[in-house]
Amino acid sequence: MGNGFRLKNSIVFYFIVGFGCIFALGIREIHLFDLDELYFAEITREMIRTGNYGQVTFNFEPLYEKPPFFFWLQAVSMHFWGINELGARFPNLVCGLLTLATVYYIGKQYKDQWFGFLWMCLYATTFLPHFYFKSAIIDPFFNYFLLLAIYFLSHSIMPSNPWLYGSAGLSIGFGLLTKGPMALIIPLATLGLSYTWFKGNVVSFKSLVSALLIATAVVSCWLIPEIWSNGCTFIKKFWDYHLLLYHQPVYTHDQPWYYHHLVLFFGCFPSTLLAILILKQKKFIQERYFAANMQALLVVVLVIFTLVGTKIVHYSAMAYFPITFFATDFLHQKIYNRQYSHSAMAFLVIGVMIGSTLALMPWIMLHKTLWIRLVQNQTIKDALQVPVIWNYWDSIPGIIYTIGIATAYYFLVQSRFIPFISNFALINICTLALFLIRIAPKVEAYTQKSMVDFCKACKGKNVYLATVGFKSAAPLFYADLPKILRVTDINWLLEGPIDKPCFFILYKKDSAILKDYLDITYIKSSGCFAFYKRLPKT
Fold first, then answer.
1. 126-169 pLDDT tens trace
2. Cα gap 240→404, rounded to integer Å
3. Structural contact between residues 150 and 187, judged by C-beta atoms closer than 8 angstroms
């Protein structure tokens, strides 16, 4: 690697195609997960059903939580693949390919082609980024636009390159159209923080203003027609929703302040460990502007989403870029300098902990009678009653990961960094693939499969289908319903003069809600869910 061997572009291309095939593995084997995947896919389904692509709706009512760009991409995919799991998730597979090509190009420009190739491989094989390219959530595209914005702004200090801040403006604009104001807040906060320690030229005020004007023009292409048609309702309700989201935890997402630190450390292991080691050496990066911005980006993401009240795993997904960037920098230096890494023991201990947890999971589930009485949450306790078949073969992902970590540790202490990188990248891919094949369907069986199957059985039938006591997009998406009455109309479904059969889904622990409605009859229970029906009076 360090002896002048040139990496051919064709090799990079084949690797990207190979990673794309891996991203595609199992992409339609598991139902869309409630709430985010199903929620976004339902928004897109409604766009297709109504033909109204200018307004975001849920339950065919205006929704003011998200701008529409990602749903436009999903709509194109669903027109091609159908309104199903593949149609919903395919855009992020494409985003994965774009992201890998981009990080290779950025890494190549930053240092050399091997840095770019290493960063690309590291990003593709790290657990959380890899998993999200198989998902149907907004964040992969949102993060991609932010990466482009920060890269272009980092290089707009170069004279006679107006296309750089123009490209930055386009990236911010599409980020705003994808998820909203964080596309502006994160880049500006990143540039502002790196300005405090970077020694050298930084992005000029003129370039920044030009980029923001272009971003405004991009957003205006959708926002002006929206205001023209519906007034300023979207802007007002969008801000009200996000201010509430950031200040007050959403139910089930009230986590401790260090939540994202743990998620990133274990979800991006071992990149997080390697990034910590090199950042401890560099403290404040002052020599290279893009690296300084990557360091500032990591700090900004952690600070913002530590302070935000609602904590969800993918909120901190933008941190995947700086974490893998600095892990790549660490490994790149080690490969060229042939230095022994003092992090080897920490790598082994943490890796074995993760592998052992995966390996022990089937044993724990096979012997749940020993510990289920300790579970306090009744919904979880009910969910665990689903008769899921576990066997010791389900320990294979954890066993492979543990053996792979031990092998990678051997190469690490021998300072054989290329075999080390190849080994843990390969075991990450194998472990995640086996996890999705063997473990994820069983997790879904505990959590939502019975509800999804019930909704799918109602598809094509002239019925009402509603959840009681909780929110879910499954009845709309999987039953392909034209509309479910609003929450405010639930009493009409419960006791009004309905004109067709109505089915209710609720958590088993909440069954008492329906005990006073004598014409609502019990159908069955499965796991944590109970199913009821009410027939119209003849």
1. 999 999 999 999 999 999 999 999 999 988 766 557 788 889 99
2. 48
3. yes
Helix (H) or strand (E) holding 400: helix 396-413
Residue 284, SS3 per DSSP = coil
Convert the pLDDT of each residue in 319-375 to its tens digit: 999 999 999 998 888 776 655 556 688 889 999 999 999 999 999 999 998 899 899
Q: Residue 456: is it exposed, middle or buried by C-beta count within 10 angstroms (0-12/13-18/19+)?
A: middle
Closest CA to 352 of 409, 392, 436: 409
Q: What is the mean pLDDT of residues 273-300?
A: 87
The Cα 385–Cα 363 span in angstroms is 16
3-state secondary structure 170-193: HHHHHHHHHCCCHHHHHHHHHHHH
Q: In angstroms, rounded to a whole number, what is the distance separating the alpha carbons of residues 334 and 341? A: 8
Query: How many Å apart are CA 156 and CA 470, to the nearest integer?
Result: 48
- 526 φψ region: left (φ > 0), alpha (ψ -120 to 50), beta (else): beta
Of residues 257 and 322, more confidence is placed in 322
The pLDDT mean for the chain works out to 89
Under a CB-based contact definition with an 8 Å cutoff, are residues 133 and 153 in contact?
no
Q: Where are the domains of the chain?
A: 9-337, 344-447, 452-534
**Interior/surface letters 115-128, b for 16+ CB within 10 angstroms, e for the rest:** bbbbbbbbbbbbbb
Taking CA atoms, 444 is separated from 34, 90, 440, in Å, by 10, 20, 6
22: left (phi over 0), alpha (psi -120 to 50) or beta: alpha
DSSP 7-56: PPHHHHHHHHHHHHHHHHTTTTTSPPPTTHHHHHHHHHHHHHHH---SS-
H-type alpha helices, 283-343: 289-307, 320-337
Output the six-digit token pair for 516.
């006073």
Helices (H), 435-465: 440-447, 449-457
Tokens representing 524?
Answer: 């069955």
Q: What stretch of H or E contains 58?
A: strand 57-58
* Residue 537 pLDDT greater than 90, yes or no: no
